Amino acid sequence: MLDVIVIGAGMAGITAARNLTQASLSVAVLEARDRIGGRIMTVDDFCEGPVEGGAEFVHGLNAATLPEVRAAGLALRGSPQMRRTAFNLGGGTRWLPIACMHPGTWACAGMRGKIARSEPPDLSAREFMDKHGYKGRGRMLTEMTFLQHLPGSADDVGVLGLVDDGVLDLQTRFNNRIVTGYSSLPRALAKDLDIRLGNQVESVVWNAQKVTVRLKGGEELHARALISTLPIGVLKSEAVRFDPPLPESKKWALAQMEMGPITKILMRFDRRFWPRWMEMAASASGAVNLYWAVFRNVKDRSAALTGYCIGPRATKLSAESDDREIEIVMDDLRRMFPKADPQRALVDYRLVNWAKDPFAGGGYSFLRPGGRGAREALRATDTGAVFWAGAGTESRPVSELVETAYLSGLRAAGEVAQFLKAQ
């Protein structure tokens, strides 16, 4: 019998397994995919440098993962988005400060403070905008504040959940890219761990003293404790069965969360047609939420953009064929940069649709109106020998980031170590 089974070899699972292994416990990590990293997925065969199909940035100058990045000897490249963002609120794509100087945006002055000071009863993003009378460009800018990171509609996203999840803080952080690709970090942390790829869990039989995990194919594994890092979308789909069923507290928590769709469009061009200074271009309307200039200010790299399409826009885009999807994206880039001919400059593209990944079930989770406290309820230690980690189990510093997944792994490892010591 193992001491601990960890389901999932993403950042949370690897972090928890490493800490427990260092404590001289026997730990096996079961991963359904043929790779580690979860929703960290660097694409190395698309152009001369790494492009991120999943998580893009180390968010913030004080991110909890930075000591691990440095210990692994990984170099960082800054991505100063606040200073190098272009916005399209209608009428052209302009540097963010200039776009915000338009009189139509003045009505939402102080909007972020109003969001931060929101109190119960909870409202949806749409109800918040209606309550404060935001219209025109002011409403567009407010909606972008709610939905630029959270993959839901204005009716789906709860204001208090957005505040609790730290999303307002995320939007002001200075970001970094890992030069060799984000996947370098989980690879460094996973060294010498017992990670078993291609092992899809079908069910977990649990009680207060032990667990039995049944794999697709019939194999069974036994352990004194288990850490689930299954994403919210997978938990909600019940692709993994729990016997006995999870308690009502966990069912309530999952009902308050949604796993929204995210599609990333990796594009390589034979020439750059966007401003040299631009790090990111965001749009209030159109097919795609925003674009990142992947190799801004890096010599000898392709002219590459990553399109980031989330929520209702991702749902609409992914309903099309691959060929039609890229046509729509090219039309959207032409709208953003009317003097360019993106279609003619396009060399290659690749689509990464996280909603179609059965082991992710979507891109990020968010809290519905009235969902305050759901993440705390999900991670609560009220399921015997089963413990909970993953980016969706934490709200702070910002939910659903790699940093948050990492911190959840540290927390869960501590909970399990204490549980096993008490046995």
Count, helices:
16
Strand content: 15-25%
Number of strands: 22
| CATH C-level of the largest domain | Alpha Beta
Q: Separation of termini?
A: 15 Å
Q: What does the model show?
A:
This protein folds into three domains: 2-39 and 183-257 and 365-422, FAD/NAD(P)-binding domain (3-Layer(bba) Sandwich), CATH 3.50.50; 42-62 and 72-81 and 173-181 and 259-356, Alpha-Beta Complex (Polyamine Oxidase, Chain A, domain 2), CATH 3.90.660; 100-170, no CATH class. The chain is built from 16 helices and 22 strands. It has helices at residues 11-22, 66-71, 96-100, 111-116, 125-131, 136-147, 159-164, 167-170, 184-189, 232-237, 248-255, 311-318, 322-336, 342-345, 374-379, 402-422; strands spanning 2-7, 27-31, 42-43, 51-52, 58-59, 76-79, 85-88, 93-95, 175-178, 195-197, 201-206, 211-215, 220-228, 241-243, 257-260, 262-269, 280-283, 290-293, 303-310, 346-353, 364-367, 386-388. The longest helix has 21 residues, at 402-422. 51% of the residues are buried.
What is this structure's SSE topology?
Layout: E1 2-7, H1 11-22, E2 27-31, E3 42-43, E4 51-52, E5 58-59, H2 66-71, E6 76-79, E7 85-88, E8 93-95, H3 96-100, H4 111-116, H5 125-131, H6 136-147, H7 159-164, H8 167-170, E9 175-178, H9 184-189, E10 195-197, E11 201-206, E12 211-215, E13 220-228, H10 232-237, E14 241-243, H11 248-255, E15 257-260, E16 262-269, E17 280-283, E18 290-293, E19 303-310, H12 311-318, H13 322-336, H14 342-345, E20 346-353, E21 364-367, H15 374-379, E22 386-388, H16 402-422
Helix pairs in contact: 1-16
